[in-house]
Amino acid sequence: MKNLDKMISLRHLEIEGKRMIGIKFYPDKVLQALVKTLPFPKWHKKSQMVCIENTKENYYMLLEKFKGIAWIDFRYFSKKGWQGSDDPTLIIKAYKKRVLPSGAKRCPENFLNELNQRRYACSTVRSYIGCFERFINHYNKKKLTELGEEEIKTFIQNLINQKYSDSSVNMHINAIKFYYEVVEKMPNRFYDFARPAKEDRLPEVLSKQEVINMIGKCYNLKHKCIVSLLYSAGLRRSELLNLKITDIDSGRMSILIRQSKGKKDRISILGNSVLKDLRAYFQSYRPKVFLFEGAQGQQYSSTSVSKIVKKAAMRSAIKKHVTPHMLRHSFATHLLEAGTDLRYIQSLLGHNSSNTTEIYTHVAVNAFKNITNPLDCLT
Q1: Range of the domain at 68
Q2: What is the mean pLDDT for each group of 10 consecutive residues in the chain (379 residues)?
Q3: pTM of the predicted model as reported, rounded to 2 decimal places
Q4: Which of 23, 44, 77 is the last residue of a domain?
Q5: Which residues have a catalytic role annotated?
Q6: What is 81-106 written as a DSSP string?
Q7: What is the CATH number for 40?
Protein backbone atom coordinates (compact mmCIF):
# COMPACT_ATOMS: atom_id res chain seq x y z
CA MET A 1 0.00 0.00 0.00
CA LYS A 2 1.28 3.46 -0.86
CA ASN A 3 2.57 5.45 2.15
CA LEU A 4 0.48 8.63 1.98
CA ASP A 5 1.67 11.73 3.83
CA LYS A 6 -1.48 13.81 3.37
CA MET A 7 -4.84 13.52 5.10
CA ILE A 8 -8.33 15.00 4.95
CA SER A 9 -11.10 14.60 7.52
CA LEU A 10 -14.78 14.53 6.54
CA ARG A 11 -17.49 16.07 8.76
CA HIS A 12 -21.27 16.34 8.67
CA LEU A 13 -22.43 19.97 8.44
CA GLU A 14 -25.74 21.73 8.03
CA ILE A 15 -25.67 25.20 6.49
CA GLU A 16 -28.88 27.18 6.01
CA GLY A 17 -30.92 23.98 6.28
CA LYS A 18 -28.86 22.12 3.67
CA ARG A 19 -26.74 19.01 4.38
CA MET A 20 -23.09 19.54 3.53
CA ILE A 21 -19.84 17.58 3.61
CA GLY A 22 -17.17 19.43 5.55
CA ILE A 23 -13.58 18.83 4.39
CA LYS A 24 -10.88 19.52 6.96
CA PHE A 25 -7.15 19.45 6.11
CA TYR A 26 -3.91 21.22 6.87
CA PRO A 27 -2.79 23.86 4.33
CA ASP A 28 -1.29 22.01 1.39
CA LYS A 29 -0.97 23.14 -2.25
CA VAL A 30 -1.89 19.74 -3.71
CA LEU A 31 -4.99 19.31 -1.51
CA GLN A 32 -6.09 22.91 -2.09
CA ALA A 33 -5.82 22.44 -5.85
CA LEU A 34 -7.92 19.24 -5.70
CA VAL A 35 -10.56 20.84 -3.48
CA LYS A 36 -11.00 23.65 -6.01
CA THR A 37 -11.96 21.06 -8.64
CA LEU A 38 -14.87 19.78 -6.51
CA PRO A 39 -18.40 20.95 -7.44
CA PHE A 40 -19.09 24.40 -5.95
CA PRO A 41 -16.75 24.29 -2.92
CA LYS A 42 -17.49 26.96 -0.30
CA TRP A 43 -15.61 28.17 2.75
CA HIS A 44 -17.66 27.87 5.96
CA LYS A 45 -16.26 30.43 8.39
CA LYS A 46 -17.90 29.06 11.54
CA SER A 47 -16.52 25.52 11.16
CA GLN A 48 -13.32 26.71 9.43
CA MET A 49 -13.82 24.10 6.69
CA VAL A 50 -14.35 23.87 2.96
CA CYS A 51 -17.71 22.25 2.25
CA ILE A 52 -19.66 20.83 -0.67
CA GLU A 53 -23.27 19.69 -0.91
CA ASN A 54 -23.87 16.30 0.72
CA THR A 55 -25.08 14.14 -2.16
CA LYS A 56 -24.24 10.58 -3.08
CA GLU A 57 -22.62 11.75 -6.31
CA ASN A 58 -20.44 14.33 -4.56
CA TYR A 59 -19.40 11.85 -1.91
CA TYR A 60 -18.12 9.27 -4.43
CA MET A 61 -16.52 12.01 -6.54
CA LEU A 62 -14.66 13.21 -3.45
CA LEU A 63 -13.39 9.68 -2.71
CA GLU A 64 -12.18 9.31 -6.29
CA LYS A 65 -10.43 12.71 -6.31
CA PHE A 66 -8.30 11.93 -3.25
CA LYS A 67 -7.72 8.23 -3.96
CA GLY A 68 -3.99 7.49 -3.80
CA ILE A 69 -3.21 11.08 -2.79
CA ALA A 70 -4.46 11.45 0.79
CA TRP A 71 -5.76 9.36 3.66
CA ILE A 72 -9.44 10.03 4.38
CA ASP A 73 -10.44 10.14 8.06
CA PHE A 74 -14.05 8.91 8.45
CA ARG A 75 -14.22 9.06 12.27
CA TYR A 76 -16.79 11.87 12.20
CA PHE A 77 -18.49 10.69 9.01
CA SER A 78 -19.52 7.19 10.01
CA LYS A 79 -22.02 4.80 8.45
CA LYS A 80 -24.49 5.92 11.10
CA GLY A 81 -24.69 9.22 9.27
CA TRP A 82 -25.39 12.18 11.50
CA GLN A 83 -25.70 9.87 14.51
CA GLY A 84 -21.91 9.58 14.30
CA SER A 85 -21.44 13.35 14.22
CA ASP A 86 -19.64 15.38 16.87
CA ASP A 87 -22.43 17.99 16.76
CA PRO A 88 -25.36 17.25 19.14
CA THR A 89 -27.82 19.15 16.92
CA LEU A 90 -27.04 16.92 13.93
CA ILE A 91 -27.21 13.80 16.11
CA ILE A 92 -30.73 14.72 17.24
CA LYS A 93 -31.80 15.35 13.64
CA ALA A 94 -30.48 11.92 12.71
CA TYR A 95 -32.45 10.27 15.51
CA LYS A 96 -35.61 12.03 14.35
CA LYS A 97 -35.22 10.70 10.81
CA ARG A 98 -34.00 7.15 11.46
CA VAL A 99 -36.13 4.16 10.53
CA LEU A 100 -37.19 2.07 13.54
CA PRO A 101 -38.26 -1.59 13.61
CA SER A 102 -41.96 -2.18 13.04
CA GLY A 103 -43.98 -1.34 16.15
CA ALA A 104 -41.10 0.34 18.01
CA LYS A 105 -41.78 3.67 19.72
CA ARG A 106 -39.40 6.61 19.38
CA CYS A 107 -38.57 9.45 21.77
CA PRO A 108 -41.23 12.19 21.80
CA GLU A 109 -40.44 15.27 19.74
CA ASN A 110 -40.41 17.52 22.80
CA PHE A 111 -37.83 15.23 24.48
CA LEU A 112 -35.46 15.62 21.51
CA ASN A 113 -36.10 19.36 21.20
CA GLU A 114 -35.29 19.93 24.87
CA LEU A 115 -32.02 18.01 24.51
CA ASN A 116 -31.19 20.19 21.53
CA GLN A 117 -31.97 23.46 23.31
CA ARG A 118 -29.86 22.54 26.33
CA ARG A 119 -26.85 21.62 24.13
CA TYR A 120 -26.00 18.52 26.12
CA ALA A 121 -22.81 16.67 25.24
CA CYS A 122 -23.03 14.16 22.36
CA SER A 123 -22.51 11.20 24.69
CA THR A 124 -25.35 12.41 26.98
CA VAL A 125 -27.69 12.91 24.02
CA ARG A 126 -27.11 9.37 22.74
CA SER A 127 -27.43 7.85 26.22
CA TYR A 128 -30.63 9.70 27.15
CA ILE A 129 -32.35 8.82 23.87
CA GLY A 130 -31.34 5.15 24.11
CA CYS A 131 -32.35 4.84 27.77
CA PHE A 132 -35.70 6.59 27.40
CA GLU A 133 -36.64 4.58 24.31
CA ARG A 134 -35.82 1.38 26.20
CA PHE A 135 -38.23 2.56 28.92
CA ILE A 136 -41.15 3.46 26.64
CA ASN A 137 -40.74 0.29 24.57
CA HIS A 138 -40.80 -1.80 27.75
CA TYR A 139 -44.43 -0.61 27.97
CA ASN A 140 -45.07 -0.75 24.25
CA LYS A 141 -48.86 -1.03 24.59
CA LYS A 142 -49.24 1.87 27.03
CA LYS A 143 -49.25 5.61 26.42
CA LEU A 144 -46.70 7.80 28.18
CA THR A 145 -49.51 9.45 30.13
CA GLU A 146 -50.42 6.03 31.59
CA LEU A 147 -46.96 5.43 33.04
CA GLY A 148 -46.47 6.35 36.67
CA GLU A 149 -44.35 5.58 39.69
CA GLU A 150 -45.11 1.85 39.81
CA GLU A 151 -44.28 1.34 36.15
CA ILE A 152 -40.97 3.17 36.58
CA LYS A 153 -40.09 1.09 39.65
CA THR A 154 -40.90 -2.12 37.80
CA PHE A 155 -38.80 -1.07 34.80
CA ILE A 156 -35.79 -0.18 36.97
CA GLN A 157 -36.08 -3.47 38.86
CA ASN A 158 -36.15 -5.27 35.51
CA LEU A 159 -32.85 -3.61 34.54
CA ILE A 160 -31.31 -4.71 37.83
CA ASN A 161 -32.56 -8.27 37.30
CA GLN A 162 -30.93 -8.24 33.84
CA LYS A 163 -27.60 -7.35 35.50
CA TYR A 164 -27.32 -3.85 34.05
CA SER A 165 -24.44 -1.97 35.68
CA ASP A 166 -25.16 0.55 38.44
CA SER A 167 -24.04 3.42 36.21
CA SER A 168 -26.38 2.25 33.43
CA VAL A 169 -29.32 1.99 35.84
CA ASN A 170 -28.60 5.51 37.07
CA MET A 171 -28.44 6.78 33.50
CA HIS A 172 -31.89 5.31 32.80
CA ILE A 173 -33.26 7.03 35.92
CA ASN A 174 -31.73 10.33 34.81
CA ALA A 175 -33.28 10.00 31.35
CA ILE A 176 -36.74 9.29 32.84
CA LYS A 177 -36.37 12.19 35.28
CA PHE A 178 -35.34 14.42 32.38
CA TYR A 179 -38.56 13.66 30.55
CA TYR A 180 -41.01 14.05 33.42
CA GLU A 181 -39.32 16.85 35.37
CA VAL A 182 -37.58 18.90 32.66
CA VAL A 183 -39.57 18.27 29.48
CA GLU A 184 -43.05 17.90 31.01
CA LYS A 185 -42.19 20.08 34.06
CA MET A 186 -43.90 17.68 36.46
CA PRO A 187 -43.04 17.75 40.17
CA ASN A 188 -40.54 15.27 41.58
CA ARG A 189 -43.10 12.66 42.58
CA PHE A 190 -42.07 9.53 40.72
CA TYR A 191 -38.78 8.82 42.38
CA ASP A 192 -39.06 7.77 46.01
CA PHE A 193 -37.13 4.58 45.20
CA ALA A 194 -33.48 4.08 46.01
CA ARG A 195 -30.87 4.52 43.32
CA PRO A 196 -28.14 1.89 43.13
CA ALA A 197 -25.52 2.71 45.72
CA LYS A 198 -22.36 4.16 44.25
CA GLU A 199 -19.43 1.82 44.65
CA ASP A 200 -17.13 3.30 47.27
CA ARG A 201 -13.83 2.53 45.59
CA LEU A 202 -10.60 4.33 46.35
CA PRO A 203 -8.56 5.54 43.37
CA GLU A 204 -5.52 3.44 42.53
CA VAL A 205 -2.28 5.41 42.59
CA LEU A 206 1.36 4.90 41.77
CA SER A 207 4.30 5.78 43.99
CA LYS A 208 6.57 8.64 42.95
CA GLN A 209 9.32 6.17 42.14
CA GLU A 210 7.00 4.15 39.90
CA VAL A 211 6.11 7.31 37.96
CA ILE A 212 9.81 8.20 37.60
CA ASN A 213 10.52 4.67 36.37
CA MET A 214 7.72 4.83 33.80
CA ILE A 215 8.93 8.14 32.39
CA GLY A 216 12.49 6.78 32.30
CA LYS A 217 11.32 3.72 30.35
CA CYS A 218 9.79 5.82 27.56
CA TYR A 219 12.48 5.60 24.88
CA ASN A 220 10.46 7.62 22.36
CA LEU A 221 10.45 11.39 23.01
CA LYS A 222 6.77 11.81 22.10
CA HIS A 223 5.79 8.95 24.42
CA LYS A 224 7.87 10.45 27.22
CA CYS A 225 6.10 13.80 26.84
CA ILE A 226 2.67 12.10 26.86
CA VAL A 227 3.31 10.16 30.09
CA SER A 228 4.97 13.18 31.72
CA LEU A 229 2.10 15.53 30.87
CA LEU A 230 -0.63 13.13 32.01
CA TYR A 231 1.05 12.96 35.41
CA SER A 232 2.55 16.42 35.89
CA ALA A 233 -0.59 18.36 34.91
CA GLY A 234 -3.22 15.89 36.14
CA LEU A 235 -4.79 15.58 32.70
CA ARG A 236 -7.59 13.33 31.56
CA ARG A 237 -6.76 11.40 28.40
CA SER A 238 -9.22 13.44 26.31
CA GLU A 239 -7.72 16.68 27.64
CA LEU A 240 -4.25 15.60 26.57
CA LEU A 241 -5.47 14.72 23.07
CA ASN A 242 -7.25 18.08 22.67
CA LEU A 243 -4.22 20.15 23.69
CA LYS A 244 -3.04 22.54 21.01
CA ILE A 245 0.43 23.98 20.68
CA THR A 246 -0.87 27.40 21.71
CA ASP A 247 -2.24 25.97 24.99
CA ILE A 248 1.30 25.60 26.38
CA ASP A 249 2.33 28.89 28.02
CA SER A 250 6.02 28.73 28.90
CA GLY A 251 6.01 32.35 30.08
CA ARG A 252 3.55 31.60 32.87
CA MET A 253 4.55 27.92 33.16
CA SER A 254 0.93 26.91 32.72
CA ILE A 255 -1.27 24.77 30.49
CA LEU A 256 -4.71 25.88 29.27
CA ILE A 257 -7.23 23.03 29.18
CA ARG A 258 -10.17 24.08 27.02
CA GLN A 259 -13.80 22.99 27.30
CA SER A 260 -13.15 19.88 29.33
CA LYS A 261 -15.68 17.91 31.37
CA GLY A 262 -18.69 20.12 32.04
CA LYS A 263 -17.60 22.42 29.17
CA LYS A 264 -15.20 24.32 31.43
CA ASP A 265 -11.79 25.84 30.80
CA ARG A 266 -9.11 25.58 33.47
CA ILE A 267 -5.40 26.15 34.04
CA SER A 268 -2.92 23.52 35.19
CA ILE A 269 0.78 23.66 35.99
CA LEU A 270 3.68 23.09 33.60
CA GLY A 271 6.83 21.47 34.98
CA ASN A 272 10.32 22.69 34.04
CA SER A 273 11.54 19.23 33.02
CA VAL A 274 8.40 18.67 30.92
CA LEU A 275 8.88 22.02 29.17
CA LYS A 276 12.45 21.06 28.27
CA ASP A 277 11.24 17.75 26.76
CA LEU A 278 8.36 19.47 24.94
CA ARG A 279 10.76 21.92 23.28
CA ALA A 280 12.93 19.05 22.06
CA TYR A 281 9.81 17.17 20.93
CA PHE A 282 8.52 20.19 18.99
CA GLN A 283 11.85 20.64 17.19
CA SER A 284 11.84 16.96 16.22
CA TYR A 285 8.17 16.32 15.35
CA ARG A 286 6.92 19.77 14.27
CA PRO A 287 3.20 19.31 15.09
CA LYS A 288 0.98 21.78 13.24
CA VAL A 289 -2.23 22.18 15.28
CA PHE A 290 -2.60 19.64 18.07
CA LEU A 291 0.32 19.16 20.42
CA PHE A 292 0.27 15.42 19.70
CA GLU A 293 -0.57 14.33 16.17
CA GLY A 294 -0.58 11.06 14.27
CA ALA A 295 1.61 10.11 11.32
CA GLN A 296 -0.68 11.87 8.82
CA GLY A 297 -1.10 14.98 10.98
CA GLN A 298 -4.43 13.93 12.46
CA GLN A 299 -5.28 14.19 16.16
CA TYR A 300 -3.55 11.45 18.15
CA SER A 301 -5.75 8.49 19.12
CA SER A 302 -6.88 7.64 22.65
CA THR A 303 -5.97 3.97 22.07
CA SER A 304 -2.38 4.94 21.33
CA VAL A 305 -2.13 6.87 24.61
CA SER A 306 -3.39 3.86 26.59
CA LYS A 307 -0.86 1.59 24.85
CA ILE A 308 1.99 4.00 25.61
CA VAL A 309 1.11 4.10 29.33
CA LYS A 310 0.64 0.33 29.51
CA LYS A 311 3.98 -0.35 27.79
CA ALA A 312 5.85 2.07 30.08
CA ALA A 313 4.35 0.32 33.13
CA MET A 314 5.32 -3.13 31.81
CA ARG A 315 8.90 -2.01 31.16
CA SER A 316 9.01 -0.69 34.74
CA ALA A 317 7.85 -4.10 36.08
CA ILE A 318 4.76 -2.53 37.68
CA LYS A 319 2.24 -5.27 38.41
CA LYS A 320 -0.79 -2.95 38.67
CA HIS A 321 -3.12 -2.40 35.74
CA VAL A 322 -1.89 1.10 34.92
CA THR A 323 -4.16 3.46 32.97
CA PRO A 324 -3.78 7.11 31.88
CA HIS A 325 -6.30 8.11 34.56
CA MET A 326 -4.16 6.47 37.26
CA LEU A 327 -1.48 9.04 36.49
CA ARG A 328 -4.04 11.80 37.16
CA HIS A 329 -4.95 10.16 40.49
CA SER A 330 -1.25 9.92 41.35
CA PHE A 331 -0.72 13.62 40.55
CA ALA A 332 -3.47 14.65 42.99
CA THR A 333 -2.35 12.25 45.72
CA HIS A 334 1.31 13.28 45.53
CA LEU A 335 0.36 16.97 45.69
CA LEU A 336 -1.73 16.29 48.80
CA GLU A 337 1.09 14.31 50.40
CA ALA A 338 3.42 17.26 49.73
CA GLY A 339 1.10 19.56 51.70
CA THR A 340 -0.69 21.32 48.82
CA ASP A 341 -4.00 22.89 49.87
CA LEU A 342 -6.99 20.78 48.80
CA ARG A 343 -8.61 23.82 47.17
CA TYR A 344 -5.68 24.25 44.79
CA ILE A 345 -5.79 20.56 43.90
CA GLN A 346 -9.53 20.87 43.22
CA SER A 347 -8.84 23.78 40.84
CA LEU A 348 -6.02 21.96 39.04
CA LEU A 349 -8.21 18.87 38.51
CA GLY A 350 -11.28 20.88 37.46
CA HIS A 351 -13.60 19.38 40.08
CA ASN A 352 -16.89 21.16 40.72
CA SER A 353 -17.10 20.01 44.32
CA SER A 354 -14.43 19.66 46.99
CA ASN A 355 -16.15 16.39 47.96
CA THR A 356 -14.81 14.82 44.75
CA THR A 357 -11.26 15.94 45.56
CA GLU A 358 -11.46 14.80 49.17
CA ILE A 359 -11.31 11.16 48.09
CA TYR A 360 -7.54 11.60 47.75
CA THR A 361 -7.26 12.17 51.50
CA HIS A 362 -8.10 8.46 51.86
CA VAL A 363 -5.15 7.32 49.78
CA ALA A 364 -2.53 9.89 50.85
CA VAL A 365 -0.15 8.10 53.23
CA ASN A 366 1.95 10.99 54.55
CA ALA A 367 -0.17 11.18 57.73
CA PHE A 368 0.43 7.47 58.40
CA LYS A 369 4.21 7.77 58.42
CA ASN A 370 4.28 9.06 62.00
CA ILE A 371 2.12 6.18 63.26
CA THR A 372 4.03 3.25 64.73
CA ASN A 373 2.66 -0.10 63.72
CA PRO A 374 1.65 -2.01 66.91
CA LEU A 375 3.48 -5.12 65.70
CA ASP A 376 6.73 -3.14 65.62
CA CYS A 377 6.21 -2.22 69.28
CA LEU A 378 6.23 -5.92 70.21
CA THR A 379 9.71 -6.54 68.86
Answers
A1: 7-77
A2: 66 82 84 89 84 87 86 67 58 75 86 86 85 92 86 90 87 92 78 61 91 95 96 94 93 92 88 95 90 80 90 95 95 92 93 88 77 75
A3: 0.62
A4: 77
A5: 236, 261, 325, 328, 351, 360
A6: GGGG-S-HHHHHHHHHHPPPPTT---
A7: 3.40.1170
